[in-house]
Amino acid sequence: MSRPRARLNLASWLCTMIFLLVMAGLPHLAQAQPSQATATTPDHVVHDISISKGYWLSPNRNERLASVEAQTFKPFRDLISLSYEKNDLWVRLEVPASSHALYLHVQPFWLDELEYHDPYTHQAPQMRGDRHLLNGISNQQQDHAFQVAPAPVVRMIYLRVRSSSAYLVYPQVLTAEGLNHAEKNKLLYSSIYLGIFVALTLIILQALIISKDLLIGIFAIKHICYTLYALFTLGMFQLIVDIDLENRFIDKAHIFSIFGIVSLTAVYDGYLIGAFTGKSKAWRRYFQFAALCPMAFLFLYLAGYESLALYINAIFVLQLMVALFWGALRTRRRELVEIQVRPAHLIVYYTLSVATVGLSMFQILGVFDSDIWKMYIILGQGLLAALMMITILFYRDRNMHLLMETTRVELASARKINELETRRNEEQSHFLNMLMHEIKTPLSTITLALQLNPPASPGNARLALEACREINLILQRSIDFDKLKDAPQIQRSSVLLSDSIEWVISTLQTPSRVLLTDTWDGWIETDEHYLRIILSNLVHNALRYSAPDSAIHIQVEAELVVDQRFIKIDVINRPGTAGWPDANKLFSKYYRSEGASKQPGTGLGLVVSAKLAHELGGRIEYCPTQEEVIFSLWIPQQAF
To answer: Mean pLDDT score of the chain, rounded to an integer?
Structure first.
């Protein structure tokens, strides 16, 4: 698939998912209460109309409303941020007189238990919270809303809050139009956010399926956990999953997603930064420990220490982000980094991550009060992480494309060079064959003339004939070696081994020096021509490099090797003036020992023989003793 086509597919995924998520939210927008508020709705219609607000922490978990009303409440403006508290939080709001119903709108959705009290109406308290999901209206809202009965006088209403999570409470008193407008806006923005988030998730999953990369796999799991966390945090889960849920299900799933994100962050980000810092043992061990800590916090949570587990986890997240930021500052561009992204991108990413997560954690820990938007800013870190992964994928794709282009150019150049080299080798081989043929023809004429009309000196005639034979042998070995460039064409037939050995002996100048010891003789399935070349090379070498006038022994025996019957032919001689050969270089092209430099030769005989033996299914081994040079040829009796 081409790069533009691939990018078009990714963009299509993104746009399609954003559209689908927004469309998924439209039915809920349509089900909202009819609103007369339009784009020109006055600001006071959609703003908090409460007169005053205050809160009080009750030391008694079962405080009665009558005693609560007598307490002194601490005023606050918009958001209550009290970290993790074991006590009940009571919120008091002063409501103006109204001839129509008002609504108490409470964020965020993750608060466990909300109990609404209206002393004016003397009605039973209303319960909400992610541990008290009710069928019907509470399952169709992102946040919690209580209807405030109309009254002709200014009065106080109360809200009791219990939560194992941080006490972040944002209460507002709104008109029906204001509530409708606020819910529509949040639903629309949440749908757009989740649409982008899920689209990025699908892109990353697609990259995982294609690449099967460990880093992408870890991030994909983390991103799925983050998607669930966003659904629970924004209160979208109960809108999308329209089923009856067990009490505390959303609360537990929300908490589990938090611990999962923190653990996978330690694994993923530790691996990411480690690729640039060299993956020191200390760095690796720290993040291995950091990945296990959230699991310990989870066990603490399940043991009933819910607020304590979440409080420790929040502090742990802060120090983890500081460690990641410090690691990002230490990154340097290194060769062969598998992440293939610039260190500057990592520094920017972790700077923004520390800023978003730090603001959110400090607010959760009650370090400072802030605006409502900072309560949801941690969701931005999920988008940052996804965009960072998309950046990594972009750089990988770009670098892979550049590598493929470079490889394609290099391959084309290599093919052209190979074609030129092949043509040159063919021309050279053709020229050498022609040259050798032209040399062998007059050489044969000289040899014949010397045999028919020997010179006056018999010694000179013998030397001349011997020189002609050596030249002819060198030419023949060069021709045989040149033919080995292509795979030899093996033509197997039934061969009587003794006939081949006797033929080789008959071609020698001094056949009487060769002694054949037949412990086995019989028929073998092999290529007779190539077998004779191998035996001829071994015997000629033995004659050339052995002691003068010493005997050359050929021994034949049959051996069974792994259920295969082999014929072993040993060519044995005593070392001459050339000395002992180097066992490590024997089968190297053009190798000749220092002592053999006075003898004619090319250093190709053993190379040709070893190659042909391999093609016949056998091998040649050098097996010397303390007194003798022994070359063993192994040939299978039957073809494989």
So the answer is: 79
Length of the chain: 640
Integer Cα distance of 156 and 384 in angstroms: 43
Q: Convert the pLDDT of each residue in 438-453 to its tens digit.
A: 676 666 677 666 666 6
Torsion sign over Cα 542, 544, 546, 548:
positive
Burial of 402 (0-12, 13-18, 19+ CB in 10 A): exposed
Structure-token pair, residue 559? 């051996």
Amino acid at 572: I
DSSP assignment of 160-205 equals EEE-SS--EEEEEEE-HHHHHHHHHHHHHHHHHHHHHHHHHHHHHH
Q: Are 115 and 71 in contact (CB under 8 A)?
A: no
Q: How do residues 51-97 score in pLDDT, each as one tens digit?
A: 899 999 988 878 888 899 989 999 988 888 888 888 889 999 999 99
- Residues 144, 111 contacting (CB under 8 angstroms): yes
Over residues 195-224, the mean pLDDT reads: 85
Tally Cβ neighbours within 10 Å of residue 141.
20
239, with CB counted inside 10 A (0-12, 13-18, 19+), is buried
Task: Provide the 10 A C-beta neighbour count for residue 452.
Answer: 7
- pLDDT reported for residue 436: 67
The vertex-638 CA angle with 508 and 630, nearest 5°, equals: 40
Residue written as token pair 């505390």: 248
Rg (CA), the chain: 45
Contact yes or no for 156/94 (Cβ under 8 A): yes
C-alpha span between 21 and 43 (Å, rounded): 29
Instruction: Please check whether residue 617 is in contact with residue 638, taking contact to mean a CB–CB distance below 8 angstroms.
Output: no
Residue with tokens 């292509």: 486
**Region 351-378: what's the mean pLDDT?**
80
Give the span between the Cα atoms of 45 and 179, in whole angstroms: 9
Contact between 324 and 388 under an 8 Å Cβ cutoff? The reply is no
Number of CB atoms found within 10 A of residue 83's CB: 17
Q: What is the rounded distance in angstroms from the CA atom of residue 314 to the CA atom of residue 357? A: 10
Residue 31 CB-density burial (10 A; 0-12 exposed, 13-18 middle, 19+ buried):
exposed
Q: pLDDT at position 244, please? A: 61
For the entire predicted model, the pTM comes to 0.60
Tracing tokens 């988030």 back to the chain, one arrives at: 197
Stretch 563-584: mean pLDDT: 84
Q: In what order do the strands lie in the sheet with 514-518?
A: 514-518, 552-561, 564-573, 629-636, 619-622
Identify the residue whose tokens are 């490099």. Answer: 545
